[in-house]
Automatic annotation (TrEMBL):
Species name: Chryseobacterium geocarposphaerae
A Pfam family this chain is assigned to: MPAB_Lcp_cat
Domain of life: Bacteria
Occurrences of domain ER-bound oxygenase mpaB/mpaB'/Rubber oxygenase catalytic (ranges): 154-347
Designated name of the protein: ER-bound oxygenase mpaB/mpaB'/Rubber oxygenase catalytic domain-containing protein
Lineage of origin: Bacteria, Pseudomonadati, Bacteroidota, Flavobacteriia, Flavobacteriales
Amino acid sequence: MEIPILQPRFKDSAHFKSFWEKGNGKQLLEFSEAEVSFKDFEKFAPYYYHVDEIGDQVVKDVYLTKKFHEASREIEQYIRKGVSETDDIPESVKKLFLQTQKIPDWLDYDLIKNGAELCMRSNLDSLISLRDYCLIGGYDYAYLNKPLIATEALKKGAVKRLSETLDFWVNVTRYDALEIHKKGYEFAIKTRLIHSYARLSLKKHYKRWDTDNWGEPINSWDMMATYIGFSLVFMHSLHKLGNTFSEQEEKGLFHLWKYVGYLLGIPENLLPDDKKQATQYFYLWTSIQPPADKDSVLLAHSLLNESLENPILKYKFQRKNLRYLHICCTWFLLDEEVCKRLQIPDVSNKNVFPKTKWVINKIYDTIVSREARIKKGNKDQMKVLSDYLKITQNSNFH
């Protein structure tokens, strides 16, 4: 296939200029002290049509040649026991596992530990950030959402989708999780193969896929943007909610997600080392994304209404109140223009809860030790995940 020549097609559009000159983009530039331009655009643009071919081949050789549960069991064996050059297994499987079992020269486990501690220490603010800034803010990028729409994610429902995201995030951000054969490593490999499986299914069954405009399904450049969501955007959200972090924690968070990206098959030169680099990379990527469309609005409202559908809270008034608090946080964390495009309902006193949180975080930071906060944050996050898994693994829940 001849690769189309991509241009920064939305760089003069109102939504792009507004974001980077007045909105959260302007705040990201101040937060990171990055200087942005289009001089490196041509280095990144080809990745819009680039995919994880190794992962795709593993799916073809393993998942598409046997029953799904048999294939899954086989992959789990490779994850837990490892793979060697001499094993009698498909070449693609060997290639994938020899890549992910090789520790890159740049990897620093102490830095990863610092990043994991920031994720845990920020407790429920981490989960608010993931949901009300990273996830819902991502819906404003219309082309990024196309694989979700094409794979009918709306039918699966926001509770299930949120549960899966939370399960992945929690399991890759615990102590030692990313060591070879451990839980976080397992989640990274399985997620990589889920992406490949979804991509191959889309290419086979979804005939309306518009490669020129949308790029390849789940392409490497979109993957980069998604993981900048887990690092730069996540950290900016914590900052907006009044959290502080050390230089080591900040470096650690980027290092953690750089390694997760490496395990997921994202090319290393797309994985930023710090907030300055991440902002520069993100700036280029946003120039190829149009603003929210009707699919974006459906995804955003599905996520907002998740609180009403989710039976974790027993009473209807509790669920309505939780939805209200998430709406308040969304308005506080995202640009007003983005909220309007996603048709986030306007509610009264919307700044009271997030601003109160900001004050509490400033006080909490001075009176509770870092170790105590890490311990409590880990416990509270694991409790939320456990509640979600109980509900979504219940066969009666749809």
